[in-house]
Amino acid sequence: MQFLRSLLHDLPDERKPGNNTKYQVEDAVMAAFSVFFTQSASFLDHQRLMNSNKGKNNAESLFSIEAIPSDNQIRTLLDPVPASTIFMAFQKVYQWLESKGVLKKFLYLDGEILVALDGTEYFSSKKINCPHCNYRNHRNGTTTYFHGCVTPVVVSPNQKQVINLEPEFIKKQDGHQKQDCENAAVKRWLNKNHKSKYGHPVTLLGDDLYSHEPVCDLALKQGYNFIFVCLETSHKTLYEWLEFLEASGEVTTTEKKQWDGRKKLIYRYRYASRVPLKNGDSSLEANWCEVTVINEKTQKVIYKNNWITNHKITENNVEEIVKAGRSRWKVENEGNNVLKNHGYNLEHNFGHGKNHLCELLLSLNLLAFLFHTVLDLANHTYQKVRELLVTRTSFFNDIRTLLKFIWFQDWSEFFLFIITEYVPTTKGNSS
């Protein structure tokens, strides 16, 4: 928390010098962050009550919040603050994980970082809107206004956790009337982020939306490798070439059998080199691969997918490339799905504001998720507490309850309290 607080300086404050400045903008940032970190919408209310009863509170001791502003005051203070103000926190966390050797667990494909890209929505309303909102017109005559973002995350087939990076917002750009889209947002992200910032070679993962020449070409210019889903329905030229290559014996097929604990599976890999992404002599060429997973006993196809990549594909690495490509789902399942359905309430309308509020709140929510991930990866005490409380639900229920009634001097005392006072009840549950 001190690390985050230390990054908050020179924040925009539109209040006039004569206005009441009891509450600092930094306090408002930390107050909003505390709600996301504890996954408790009532956390600040509970701390105000604790302060009136005990003269001290957990907002101050655990989050360095000197004075607790109200919800409306928080929204007012944060609205002028661009989300990019806290983006350095994402970068600093990444650098810390690198310096502590934690990122070594994520390296794949001969020491590369895999960064999966995916778009998601985080604000929508039929009434509230701003000049930057995208919109959908419905058949019944109504309009839904919404904000979205691209959420880059570091993934690995060998790790359950994902490390989220700073988002790129999908919104109308200044001076533009045209709606923004995920594809345009990804291009902006690529232009802002050269692969050199990650300290390792980077392979980008993405769905079929990205497997077209403009994004692939820009990714290569920015120093990235890529493995993108490539569907036949959207790549007519590429699959016509594959038919020609297959007829001439230039599509290689290899199989591997694997026991998954219940049944024997056949993994059938097919791959080819240097297929064009579109018509024309100047088309960018990529390498293509496919996997079909078959139940050996029933001969039923369980899974099938295709990718393009700039990595050279051989019989020795096609399985690894496919595993990397398949790990793209982690950005949805371990990333956006957790953020939407497991306590972070990503799609809840925390506030729109007139300027930057919804983007800043989204970024603080993502930062809370990142901090939880870092603790899960690197903090033994936190890992012990999670092990005792088993489920994410139990963990955050206990956090909410304890912080509501008991004052803690610091986080070490809080986690030690859980470890020493923990009494197991029925199997699979915790007290």
Helix-and-strand structural type: alpha+beta
Portion in helices: 25-40%
Task: Indicate the overall shape.
Answer: globular
What's the CATH first level of the largest domain? Alpha Beta
Helices and strands, in order, run as HHHHHHEEEEEEEHEHEHEEEEHHHHHH
- Give the DSSP E fraction (strand runs of 2 or more residues): 15-25%
CATH homology group of the largest domain: Transposase Inhibitor Protein From Tn5, Chain A, domain 1
Radius of gyration: 24 Å
Characterize the biggest β-sheet: 9 strands, mixed
Count up the helices.
Answer: 15
Question: Unreliable stretches, pLDDT < 50, 5 or more residues?
Answer: 427-431
CATH fold-level assignment of the largest domain: Transposase Inhibitor Protein From Tn5, Chain A, domain 1
The end-to-end distance, rounded to whole angstroms, is 27 Å
Strand order of the largest sheet: 6-5-1-8-9-13-12-11-10
Concise account of the structure shown:
By secondary structure, the chain is of the alpha+beta class.
